[in-house]
Design a protein that fits this description.
By secondary structure, the protein is mainly α. It has one domain. InterPro entries: Insulin-like_sf.
């Protein structure tokens, strides 16, 4: 009986090790959104051609032609805005993987 327990001990340790690796690896790649609107209404899942159509309908009218050369203040604002959004969700993750509202699409204009 004692030798049977000794034989199972390495398997039990291996099983515990594998479970620990699985738990750690799954939590390392889980990304939680903390800036959600809550229980507000969403307009649906927008994927593929539909996301492009909705983006164009909501954003193309808002575009204004600008000079390709920015002033120092405008350049600084642009860089700060870009660095603030780095690492956040993209429109496909926001609206295709999860449902979103038209207001959320407008945030990408």
């Amino acid at each position: 009986m004692h030798s049977l327990v000794q034989m199972r001990k390495p398997y039990a340790l291996l099983l515990l090790l594998l479970m620990a690796v699985l738990v750690c690896s799954s939590s390392a790649y889980t990304y939680y959104k903390v800036n959600e609107v809550g229980k507000s209404r969403t307009d649906g899942f927008f994927c593929g051609d539909r996301i492009i159509t909705i983006y164009e309908a909501l954003c193309l009218k808002r575009r204004v032609r600008r000079s390709p050369i920015l002033s120092g203040a405008d350049a600084k604002t642009f860089i700060q805005k870009r660095s603030a959004t780095y690492g956040q969700y993209h429109i496909v993750e926001e609206c295709c993987s999860e449902s979103c509202a038209y207001e959320e699409v407008r945030e990408y204009c």
